Structure prediction request, 222 residues.
Amino acid sequence: DAGITQSPRHKVTETGTPVTLRCHQTENHRYMYWYRQDPGHGLRLIHYSYGVKDTDKGEVSDGYSVSRSKTEDFLLTLESATSSQTSVYFCAISKEVGYTFGSGTRLTVV
Amino acid sequence: KQEVTQIPAALSVPEGENLVLNCSFTDSAIYNLQWFRQDPGKGLTSLLLIQSSQREQTSGRLNASLDKSSGRSTLYIAASQPGDSATYLCAAVNQAGTALIFGKGTTLSVSS
Prediction:
């Protein structure tokens, strides 16, 4: 979506390897979020950030860490990927007109 | 803890029909409610945002209402078209800046 970019769009990785997903915004919004989407579970919050170096856990944070060293970038890291982390990952920002989502990253852990 | 439920999970209608998608939430102290559309394999597209002080919002053939006292929101689609086929997601937020809580969605199929 306009103003928010996720990379990579697709990734296949092996169990046990570290993986970092990037979310980049161009509009200087304070709040950023990482969600995962799975069949039968819908969208669930992993972590969110309310400013540079300010982050907090969401509903399904186990196995994930995040970092935000600059306003525009919010990184999601899987320290040691597992098959249960195969999912579609969405980044979002909070704006005055509601929440805007990125196009998603499809991650497959084999 | 806010919980959001959408019923039905799936809906099939013929083209031209007017339809209503339902969303219910457990905590009436919501800040905003937002409806999204998601096409298969794609991201989320925002359709309508209703702020807590509002009762409804309209965009083209779409109308969303919010009744905080009953914990319900509805999305009304007029004169449905095959291009409306998608999954519709309802999400609520309780406080500015806090995360959206999503329902599991209603998958709509409109046949020509």
User: Anything to note?
Assistant: Chain B has a mean pLDDT of 95. Chain B touches chain A through 21 residues (CB under 8 Å). The CA atoms of residues 61 and 93 of chain B lie 25 Å apart.
